[in-house]
Amino acid sequence: MKIELSTPIENIPRVGPIFVKKLQKIGIKTVEDLIFHFPHRYEDFSNIKPISKATLNKNCSILGKILEIKNSRTWKKKITITKAIIEDKTGAIEAVWFNQPYLLKSLKQGDVVCLAGKISIGADGMFLSNPAYEKIPQKNYQPERKFNGSEKNEEDISLIHTARIVPVYPETEGLSSRWLRYILKPLLLELKNKIPEVLPEEIVKGYSLLPIEKAIWQIHFPNSIKLAKKAKERFSFQELFLIELSVLRERLKLDKEKAVSVPININLIKKFVGSLPFRLTDAQRKCAWQILKDLEKQRPMSRLLQGDVGSGKTIVAIIASLNVVKAGYQVSFMAPTEILAKQHFQEVSKLLSPFKIKIALLTGKEDKIISQKLKNELIEISRNKLLEKAKKGEIDILIGTHSLIQEKVKFAKLALCIVDEQHRFGVEQRAKLSQNKKAKTLKQTNKKHSLIPHFLSMTATPIPRTLALTVYGDLDLSILDEMPKGRKKVITKIVSPKEREKTYNFIRERIKEKEQAFVICPRIEATNNENKALNKKENSSWAQVKAVKEEYEKLSKKIFPKLRVEMMHGKMKIKEKEKIMKKFKKGEIDILVSTSVVEVGIDIPKATIMVIEGAERFGLAQLHQFRGRVGRSDMQSYCFLLCQSLTKKTKQRLAAMLKAKSGFELAEKDLEIRGPGSFYGLKQWGIPDLAMENLKNLPLVEQTRQAAKKILEEDPNLKASPILKDKVKKIGEKIHLE
Ligand code: ADP
Ligand code: MG
User: Fold this and answer.
1) pLDDT tens per residue across span 687-707
2) CA–centroid distance, residue 403 to ligand 2 (Å)
3) What CATH code is assigned to 266-296+312-459?
4) I need a labelling partner for 438 at 20 to 30 A (CA). Which of 332, 347, 491, 501 fits?
């Protein structure tokens, strides 16, 4: 049987059906998958010592003959102990294994073995405790031979568990590192000259990367720690490079499409800006200008407008919309929830009322749709009628939820598509929103022409630079890095358990003044499983996880019995949640106890207090988002970070909340402390492990992006490297579809 990369694991000799199942469980289906299952660390047993020189508490390997080996059982604990005496030219030492009676079947008196582990000391002197072991065929036994880890030829490594740097793989049930080494070694020998290079030669040379075959060997069976590192670097480079290529190619495809060129109507914009009750911030001007400039081009805009909560993104979107509408085209404006869509509808209608624009709201399942007729008069029309009007081009701005892309909504001349709070959309919807797919759908929605609309997405979630260059690399960025003037800074305090009462009293005072408070808790209720986990992790803050329900009971009955307290969490129906949000917005609730489901972007001017329970359990960027839900008016607002246990580390981390000037700063800190996995469910995006690990490595990200750009400039279709092209395609599918 010939082994190729594409060979299914079932066909690998020595891999039985039970192991096939186990491997498949962790997504390994082919030989290629298997050899790309990398160790996560190494054990350095390369130091081979004569027995007489073995030192206490150090990792080492010894090579010798088994003089005797036998099992015995302890009286008390009923465990089997296997003891062996090993001898080399310089002396003898005892090796002891616990609960591995079957060892006697493979290790026999007279066998030559290599043992690797730490030397311990007991009543009878030094011994090797639970060492890794490896039998050495008699013919290879050369007691004088030194393994120094610098063997030239990879095949030369006859040992895989001892006397070398040994790979340790992530622990997965039933798949031991020992077994993986045993399978991988012959597999790699079999694959000699059969692992094609993925990276173009100029890249391998230019960035001094290890060639693929060598890298595969060195990542599994490294000759030195340095080479293991080089091998890992190579694959990190490769994974990021593939992502960059995929993202940049998507962008190139999009650039070939044509969009409507919308001229900038300066007078119109000036008139609008002049009609606002406030002055635009410089950042708003700058971003609006970038967008207007993009809209002027025939190349479809694909831009992400980022700005902290309250930085005024909506106005920027409205400026762009107004310009597009007055040039004779339509705009679709999508929000993640009905409540937000309605809020936008009201704000857009209000601000654009002097401009005679037809604005409509298309929500989920309701039949009646409100539409803004000329002269500010609201009329209700049926859903079908509304869709008909959009199709005929009789609606200028259509605002709605994701129903805007999911339903058969057609436009006559859609030129701009705005998506607010892009990050709140589910992964699946986001895949649909991926620019090219969107382009295809949107193209069909335009009745009169086949041009694709410009695309503007907005988010309050700050995206660290490395992510902006990789997973969001196909978007241009505009950043609102300035808050409107006069906005008071939210006063933030870290509250220790002792100061709780004081904080409650303060809240009571504020609510007397008709202000409102949020209380955010990390969980709905502690489940049984969690309780079990808690018991295991004694001392952990999990043990005191605040549950929304419990907190609600406590606050409504004991602490604030006279106030109107309500709760909201993710397990409630959408309608219920919306009802509560509406009540809160109207001021009919004083304190809203909630999980993290509270809307981003909802304007509740009277909400001035944000209490976050178990603050130590949230990421900094997320805490910042919560904080952004208050302080949306000229009233002074407060954010209280309550911690169950205020360790020094927690305090240090949370202190960033008091200092940081923007969400960006906090997001970068999060990335540093918690790693990329904690970002917007990035874990579920199917980003390969090494790429994920390196999403905080800015130099590497920049390097791979440069490399990808250069390759695409010379060979946009990757004609010269079909293997690379195939890999890029695969990673594109993987990242977008999950
Ligand atoms: P976000 O960026 O979170 O979406 P919004 O667009 O909802 O922020 O704006 C928040 C509030 O700030 C709104 O009430 C809006 O009218 C107001 N606003 C926007 N720009 C300015 C400005 N330049 N000066 C004062 N208030 C502004
Ligand atoms: Mg907003």
Assistant:
1) 788 888 888 888 999 999 999
2) 19
3) 3.40.50.300
4) 347
